[in-house]
Amino acid sequence: MGQGNKYQEREEMYKSIGCSRVRGKLHETNQDNLELLSTRMGANIPRECINDVISFSSRSSEYNLPNIYEYQPGNATVAADEILQQIVYTLSQNHENLSWDDKSIAVFKLGLGQEIVTLVSCLHGGMENTRNAVRKYFRQINKLLKDKDYSECAWRIVQMEIRQRPALGGAHLHF
Predict the structure, then answer these.
(1) How many CA atoms lie within 13 A of 173 on its CB side?
(2) Is the Cβ–Cβ distance between 138 and 78 less than 8 Å?
(3) How many angstroms from the chain centroid is the CA of residue 61?
């Protein structure tokens, strides 16, 4: 029994070391993705979109993404993974009215995909509440896009929201 515990402890230690490396790699990739988001896709919100931004920002707090910093380490990893997956899904929708070029969107989605693959080694199962909270938030993002007919203003709000997410913002998450 003692040998089994040592093996389990060693496995956890290796996983912990690996997840520390994941955190560093994720931070690096996030910085590249955020730079692309700002430089290639535009950093400014057009004046005609301000009312839409204010309206979306002042929605009920029940639709806000839960604070990722309040999650336990395993939940934070799951939340980061789900946020990245939802961003990829959102950017795969109708973006004909979007002023971003297709190549930049493809590169951005590829970078997010690499982050998702990197996170897989640190994921823990059984965290559906965390995933559901993230999905609820992104349902509002996708509803906004649909309700606004995928307008440039709606996409600018999406861009603004993406930049504010800790999973993409290079925040110091504990995996």
Answers:
(1) 31
(2) no
(3) 19
Tell me the domain boundaries of the chain: 2-164
Question: Which helix (H) or strand (E) covers residue 44, if one does?
Answer: none
CB 97 within 8 A of CB 149: yes
The answer to whether the predicted template modeling score (pTM) of the entire model surpasses 0.85 is no
pLDDT digits (tens, 9 = 90+) for 106-133: 877 887 887 777 777 667 666 777 788 8
Angle at 119 between CA 37 and CA 87, to 5 degrees: 35
pLDDT in tens, 71-95: 666 667 777 788 888 888 888 877 6
Tokens 């795969």, located at residue: 92
**Which CATH number is associated with domain 2-164?**
1.20.1250.10
From the number of C-beta atoms within 10 Å of its C-beta (0-12, 13-18, 19+), residue 87 rates as buried
